[in-house]
């Protein structure tokens, strides 16, 4: 069905393109948010990606490549946005649990998720993008490399380095290969 929508959109059908946008927007917004760490910038990036996709849709030769193509477009836009604004915005949320809705304690889950989000924000956008595409979208590394237009080895290396930075932080180590890491392992 998606193939038919892409073909129709490529032929100028705005309604078909709208269906593609509605179907993919939430997932792409999640990717952009994890990469950019800002809701407004994430929404802007997704919108910009869809505008670019509409303008360049005739260049898409294989309708089955739509997902990879739109993700690649989005990641490039996220990279540009991250380079423009090297600032981080932190928002502290106070969530009051609703006992009627929640019978189990999910505070550990929330804390773990917040830790992952904060650690993702600490690593550079290139490593963060690989981690998000591989773990959030559950894409194989070959596809991650293709989306980012980098060699497979580079993608694997960025994934490894990014995870090492997160692990080091989890264990209170300043970073892979640091003196603290060597002392910790001794």
Summarize the SSE layout with pairings.
Elements: H1 2-10, H2 14-36, H3 39-56, H4 66-84, H5 107-122, H6 125-136, H7 141-148, H8 152-170, H9 179-185
Helix pairs in contact: 1-2, 2-3, 2-4, 2-6, 3-4, 4-7, 6-7, 6-8, 7-8
Descriptive report:
This protein is mostly helical and 186 residues long. The chain has two domains: 1-85, Rna Polymerase Sigma Factor, Chain: A (Orthogonal Bundle), CATH 1.10.1740.10; 106-175, Orthogonal Bundle (Arc Repressor Mutant, subunit A), CATH 1.10.10. Helices cover 70% and strands 0% of the residues. It contains nine helices and no strands. It has helices spanning 2-10, 14-36, 39-56, 66-84, 107-122, 125-136, 141-148, 152-170, 179-185. Helix 1 (2-10) packs across helix 2. The protein starts with a helix and ends with a helix. Mean pLDDT is 82; it is low at 87-95 and 175-186.
- The CATH topology of the largest domain is what? Rna Polymerase Sigma Factor, Chain: A
Strand content is under 5%
Please estimate the helix content. over 70%
Mean pLDDT: 82
Structural category: mainly alpha
* Number of E strands: 0
CATH class of the largest domain: Mainly Alpha
The profile of the biggest β sheet is: none
The number of helical elements comes to 9
CATH superfamily of the largest domain: RNA polymerase sigma factor, region 2, helix turn helix motif
Low-confidence stretches: 87-95, 175-186
Order of helices and strands: HHHHHHHHH
**Architecture of the largest domain, CATH level 2?**
Orthogonal Bundle
Cα-to-Cα separation, first versus last residue = 57 Å
Tally of domains: 2
């Amino acid at each position: 069905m998606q193939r038919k929508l892409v073909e129709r959109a490529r032929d100028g059908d705005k309604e078909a393109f709208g269906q593609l946008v509605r179907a993919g927007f939430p997932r792409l917004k999640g990717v952009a948010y994890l990469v950019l760490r800002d809701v407004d910038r994430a929404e802007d990036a997704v919108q910009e990606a869809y505008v670019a996709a509409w303008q360049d849709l005739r260049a898409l030769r294989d309708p089955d490549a739509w997902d990879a193509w739109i993700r690649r477009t989005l990641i490039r836009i996220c990279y540009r946005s991250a380079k423009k604004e090297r600032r981080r915005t932190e928002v502290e949320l106070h969530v009051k649990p609703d006992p009627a809705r929640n019978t189990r304690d999910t505070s550990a889950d929330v804390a773990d998720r917040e830790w992952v989000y904060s650690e993702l924000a600490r690593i550079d956008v290139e490593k963060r993008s690989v981690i998000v595409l591989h773990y959030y979208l559950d894409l194989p590394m070959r596809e991650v490399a293709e989306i980012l237009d980098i060699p497979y080895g580079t993608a694997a290396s960025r994934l490894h380095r990014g995870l090492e930075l997160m692990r080091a932080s989890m264990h209170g180590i300043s970073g892979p290969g640091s003196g603290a890491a060597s002392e910790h392992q001794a």
